[in-house]
Design a protein that fits this description.
Shape: globular
Structural class: mainly alpha
Strand content: under 5%
Number of helices: 22
């Protein structure tokens, strides 16, 4: 397992720095002084140094999943599965037509993390390019050792560019180390970047191996990412071959009980698969690529997972959940309460608000373990735990300890729906097996004051998704029977009923299964944008019969149509919160490139995406990487 300390020398030389020159009475004050004696030539000169640099790339990637208002939230709310649920501020990304502009705040817990993605992925590109450019500065024991390190760096760079082109479209594409500031970038066509990444990943697939430290890049992970890139390029046979390479390798879906709760008869294999203690152990044969999260791991600044804060309802808010009997406050937030709900489920604030599509409509099979009692929590699984209900001015003793009930109550002051004042933020279901991040029910962890999550490794790529990617490739090929077979492999592990009619299997079927399986693992906006590009490039009709074109991609696309079809916040046009109305438009298939970075690029031209201010000055993107 990767528990190596990140080499601070390497961090120092691959991040941008500013040299401050102090005044002097000698002429040599004009000579810049090194900030330290560490330079790339002196530091990238050993295999351990290269491995430490790769570990830092993993740290760069890890940050997407962790911390309050983690970036993955932004990926989720630009999709069919979720919206931003915060209701006590007007700043979060809800009215996307108004809030998402090139000059807006694009990197804040209280706004969105679009700008974080732009900068984070290019930071990863910069780190990877430094390794790639200096790969031959090191004496290796063999070509295989050299090429495996190079292949891992190619993987990280390809991962960053795969995300960039599906979040921002045509973007600059530096592929070599840059030792001086560059203000002459130009946008490069998305498909040109993807083709370069395909070539790099095919090299990596030959040399990166499986069976190393947990947290290392694996051959299976390379094949998985190559599958996505092949799909994005419309190379469906290649995608099937790449996915099959991972599926036929040493990885297998976990189908039997294992790990820390393996002997607990009240749990099941889905629970086991997502226990923090189980993700990196040898018995877990499903993880293709993990990011390692430990409190004492150098470079870990995200304060662990806070999924229990971000992804569970704000049911503990004072006077929010009321009893049906006498409208009394039904829930208290106290880990020491007789029924400590926040200790069991976390003190949520409802940032990630699942849609009816993702929390209800896709769950039509009552045998599916992913939605089974104990794994999935609905509000009616909670109980009224306020001790004041027992006696006194707030008494409603008939309801203490009983399950919450859905009800509607009208009065002069307000309208209570489902027994909650705020049904956006405080009343929805969630996957407890994914969100519950704790090794035991204790309040001793510093991240459990109040309970919001703690350190945990996290899946980036898992074999279940590889099956779903191959199923998608089969659908693009018109082989619905093979697609159904792959979908059923994933469904069988969850004990869901198998699909039986191949003629009804389509891209929507795959997206539904992804929503069931990959909560907080898949970057949903990225994957929807990728699929939207494929529809536009191929001209194939979607399951609704509609066709699309690249010529007006920002005006009409599958991404938008899918969201309007499934997301009940965006498609009703009248849901408001703190003065915001939930809105989204077709051009949100691509995010705005931060205007500040376009302005700094004084000797080049970075295009702004259509639909945003500044796009009128766009020029043709480059058809080759400079």
């Amino acid at each position: 397992m990767i528990m190596k300390k990140i080499n601070k020398k390497i961090v120092a030389i691959v991040t941008l720095t500013t040299i401050l020159i102090t005044g002097s009475c000698k002429k040599d004050y004009l000579k810049p002084k090194d900030l330290s004696d560490f330079t790339p030539d002196l530091t990238y000169n050993s295999v351990p140094a290269m491995q430490a640099a790769l570990a830092y790339l993993s740290k760069n990637l890890r940050a997407e999943f962790f911390g309050d208002s983690a970036p993955m939230l932004t990926e989720s709310i630009f999709s069919d599965v979720a919206v931003e649920g915060t209701t006590d501020k007007t700043t979060p990304a809800q009215d996307l037509n108004v809030r998402i502009t090139p000059t807006a705040n694009l990197n804040s817990d209280d706004y969105n993390k679009i700008g974080w993605y732009w900068r984070q992925w290019y930071q990863g590109v910069r780190y990877a390019n430094t390794i790639i450019t200096r790969i031959d500065n090191v004496k290796y024991t063999s070509d295989a050792q050299r090429n495996s390190i190079l292949g891992a760096a190619y993987f990280h760079r390809a991962y960053c560019y795969y995300r960039l082109v599906h979040e921002f479209g045509d973007v600059p594409c530096p592929v070599k180390e840059e030792s001086t500031p560059n203000v002459a970038y130009a946008s490069v066509k998305r498909e040109v970047i993807l083709q370069k990444m395909k070539t790099d990943l095919e090299f990596a697939q030959q040399w990166v191996t499986d069976g190393g430290n947990k947290g290392d890049v694996t051959k299976g992970a390379v094949s998985h990412l190559l599958t996505k890139v092949d799909l994005a390029l419309g190379k469906f046979d290649d995608a099937i071959a790449a996915a099959s390479s991972a599926i036929n390798g040493p990885y297998h879906l976990v189908t039997t009980r294992f790990g820390i709760n393996g002997a607990d008869a009240t749990k099941n294999v889905i629970w086991d698969l997502h226990r923090p203690e189980n993700k990196s152990i040898a018995a877990n044969t499903e993880a293709l690529y993990l990011v390692i999260d430990r409190d004492n791991l150098e470079g870990n600044t995200a304060n662990g997972s806070q999924l229990m804060r971000n992804c569970t309802p704000f049911y503990s808010q004072a006077n929010t959940i009321l009893t049906p009997g006498k409208n009394k406050a039904g829930i208290v937030d106290a880990v020491t309460a007789e029924i400590p709900l926040t200790l069991y489920y976390g003190r949520g604030i409802g940032r990630y608000r699942g849609t009816a599509y993702s929390t209800k409509n896709i769950w039509t099979d009552n045998t599916d373990l992913r939605h089974a009692p104990g794994n999935w929590i609905n509000m009616t699984d909670l109980v009224y735990n306020n001790p004041a209900l027992k006696s006194g001015a707030n008494a409603d003793p008939d309801w203490y300890g009983k399950h919450l009930e859905q009800w509607t109550k009208d009065n002069v002051a307000t309208r209570f729906i489902n027994g909650a004042r705020d049904t956006i933020r405080c009343w929805f279901g969630w996957p407890h097996y994914k969100v519950f991040i704790s090794s035991s029910l204790t309040a001793t962890d510093k991240y459990w004051s109040p309970p919001r999550g703690t350190n945990t490794d996290w899946y980036v790529f898992r074999l279940a998704e590889t099956y779903l990617l191959r199923a998608e490739a089969y659908i693009w090929k018109g082989d619905q029977a093979s697609a159904m077979a792959d979908l059923n492999v994933v469904r069988a592990r969850a004990q869901a009923a198998p699909l039986t009619d191949a003629s009804k299997v389509n891209i929507g079927t795959v997206l539904d299964e992804r929503a069931r399986e990959l909560y907080w693992e898949e970057p949903r906006k990225t994957e929807l944008a990728r699929i939207a590009y494929i529809f536009a490039l191929t001209g194939k009709p979607s399951y609704t019969g509609k066709t699309y074109s690249v010529n007006n991609f920002s005006d009409a696309n599958f991404f938008y149509d899918r969201i309007i079809e499934k997301n009940d916040f965006y498609n009703k046009g009248a849901i408001t919160n703190s003065g915001n109305t939930f809105t989204i438009s077709p051009y949100h298939v691509l995010w705005p490139i931060p205007n500040s970075d376009i302005q700094l690029n004084i000797n080049g031209h970075i295009n702004q995406n259509k639909g945003y201010a500044g796009s009128a000055s766009n020029v043709p993107a480059l058809d080759k990487i400079p």
